[in-house]
Every structure is written in C-alpha cells, then in structure tokens.
User: What shape does this take?
Amino acid sequence: MNLEQLEKVRHGAGFIAALDQSGGSTPHALELYGIDSASYSDENEMFNLMHEMRSRIITSPSFTGSQIVASILFKRTMEDQIEGIFTADYLWQKKQVVPFLKIDNGLAEKNNGVQLMKPIPELADLLDHAKHHRIFGTKMRSLIHEADIVGVNEVVEQQFITASRVSRSGLIPIIEPEIEIHSPEKGHAEELLRDALVAQLDMLDAESAVVLKLTLPNIDNFYSELIGHPRVLRVAALSGGYSRQQACTLLHRNRGMIASFSRALTEGLRVDQSDEEFNRLLSHSIESINSASTS
Assistant: This one.
C-alpha cells in the first residue's frame, strides 16, 4: 500500500471527484454534457466519448491534488490513457490525486425496500487488475429506498463482506450504501443505516480501515459517530441528485464530511464550450465543493 496516498485519504484537504459513470449512467452524463445518443453508434464509441470528457476534466489546470483528495474511476477509464499515461498513474504522478476504482456490477432488483449489489463473480481478477494499474482502493454502491430493517442490514452486510475481500487484497474499500433522497422514510432509514454501520465497524480488526460514502443526512452532523470511528478513514457525502448548490449547502452543515460528487461536479460543463470557459466553470465547481468540504 502507498503510505503517502493513505495519509492523503486520511487527512488530505479537499474532496473526492467521482468520475465513475458506468454503462447505465453514461448516456445521461453525455447528454448533460451536450452529446446525445445520435452521436455514437455503439457502446465502444459511447465510452470513447466519455473518456474524452473525463480526460478534459482531469487535465484541466484546476483539477489538482490541492483541492481534490481522490478520484473514483470506471474500469474502462482505468484501462485507458491520458496523454500516453494510464489514468491512475496520471492522476497520482501529474495531479497528486489518489485513484479509486468502481467495482460493482450495478444494482439487483428491489427487495425488502433496497437494491443490493449484483454478484461480482470476477472480483478476484478485478482486484488483481486494479493493483496492476496501481489503484489505491475501490468503491461499491447499494441503494436503500425504504426504512426496512431487514433490507438495510442486508445492504450493510453485503457491503462489508465485499469490503473484507477488498481489504485482504491490499486495497482500501469505499462503502456506499446510498439512501434515495426522495424517500419518505429517509430519516428513519438513516437511523437504521447508522446503527448497522456502527455494528459492522465495531467487528473489524484493528488493521482494517474503510471509507464511507453516504447520502447527506436530514439531521446535521447525524453521522458524527461514524466520522470519529477508529476504523473509518473518511466519511464522504454523495450528491444523490441534489444540485451542486443544494449539496454544498447541506455539506457545509455537516462537520467532518467531505464531498464525493459526480453530477454536482460536472454540472454546467458542455462539450461545445471553449477551453477557457470549460476550465473557468470547472474551477468554480471545484472551489465551491472544496469550500463545503473543508468548512
């Protein structure tokens, strides 16, 4: 494990840039960027266009480790290059940004008010592949719709079982049990989730460490117990469909949480913008998210 990267994840100022849109979310991300589905004829062309967008973001002068702690990549992005350098190496060598990899295969059908992760039969090979590309850690997402104690516990148990395999491989896991922001049971679901996370964290051995990525809570500082837990490196907030302004406002009110935004980070960026306009808008986005993350 890279100890310099570990120290940055644990104590570095700034936020986590989530650039891990996968096959299901890429068309919408490209559409927001100004590229509709008529612009590509197959998945390969779609991912090439997405890599061009991500490369434009990563190579921007404002995208640096002074405000960005880490970035989460999609597998295809990890395997692609930026300026002739594999993406994870570019992030760390050129930008001092720690690279993580999204490893889940998407969400299963809803059951007990939640969507678990689909099986990851290729996990062992994927983790080896990630280490070959000098990835520091991983991220996997589940989704909670309702305050169903059975479902919430299933989500957390599955996340920690997968996280254990990630940890044994020498990588640091980001655990992301997202709660749907429009759920009428969001507050109660947050209570169930916090309790389940604390119970699992308390069972980890002293050598284990995780990052938590959680939906911004209804009650300010609701996750302070998790932020202070000895097995937790950082607690990051996902934007979850909030606008950048909404997400930053909520994040400002939660001490100790940092952002891990995707849509809120790229909000307003367009393919037809000049480099000057693109970089100016991205700089504003990064500065506002960083400010909310360091308040």
Observations:
- The chain has one domain: 3-293.
